Structures are given as C-alpha cells and as structure tokens.
Amino acid sequence: EVRLVESGGGLVQSGGSLTLSCVASGFAFSVSAMSWGRQAPGKPIEWVSHFYGDGTTYYADSVQGRFTISRDNAKNTLYLQMNNLKPEDTAEYFCAKISTPTARGRGTQVTVST
Question: Going by C-beta distance under 8 Å and a sequence separation of 6 or more, which residues neighbour residue 100?
C-alpha cells in the first residue's frame, strides 16, 4: 500500500521559514517522480514543486527562489524548505507521487501571519 505522510506545517510569521517532510512507503521512492502541491480554501490546487526521477526540479513562479525541494532516498523522504514565507503561501500542503500510479498524502497546514 502506498503511503505518504506529511509533517512540519504550522503557524509562522511573514518572512519566516518552515521545512515540510513527507515520508513515503509502499513503492520504489528513489525512482519515483514526487511533488509538493498546495490548496488554499476556495482555490484550485497549485503544484508548487516537482522532483523528477532524473534529478531535475521544477518550481512554480510563485515560489521560485524561496522554496527548495529535496529528497533523501535512503530515508524515503521528500522535503520542502520554505523561506521568506508570505501570507499568500497559507494553504494545506501535500506531497504526491506523480509517476503512475499516482498518490497523495493528507497534507499539513501552513499558515503565514502578517
């Protein structure tokens, strides 16, 4: 069974930092394309960052230069380092396996106060 469990969310002031973690199990993590997405209330899902199996990464324009995606294949863990957080970054963040078969975790809430 594929499982993705996020942690690391919380309340932070504008300009602060958080690091999200996603522990994966039930599939070959090291060769799987993984992503972080987020969804704010009433808004569609925004794909924040991708980490492909060949090592290439993608960032949405809204987070480019502030967020960094990384992975530790030995620990089956995906990370999202978020710096210079802004109130508009407030959302439920989730990690996802985007290679077939796809899966996503339940998410962790990030709230950025002014």
Answer: none
Q: Coil, strand or helix: which one is 108? A: strand
**pLDDT 10s digits, 61-76:** 999 999 999 999 999 9
pLDDT cut 90: percent of the chain above it:
96
Distances (CA, A) of 105 to 12, 23, 64, 113: 22, 10, 23, 25
* Residue whose C-alpha is closest to residue 20's, from 97, 77, 99, 89: 77
CA dihedral 110, 66, 62, 56 (to 10 degrees): -110
How would DSSP label each residue in 35-104?
EEEEE-TTS--EEEEEE-TTS-EEE-TTTTTTEEEEEETTTTEEEEEE-S--GGG-EEEEEEE-SSSPEE
- CA neighbor of 5 nearest in space, from 65, 82, 93: 93
Count of alpha carbons within 13 Å of 38, Cβ hemisphere only?
Answer: 22
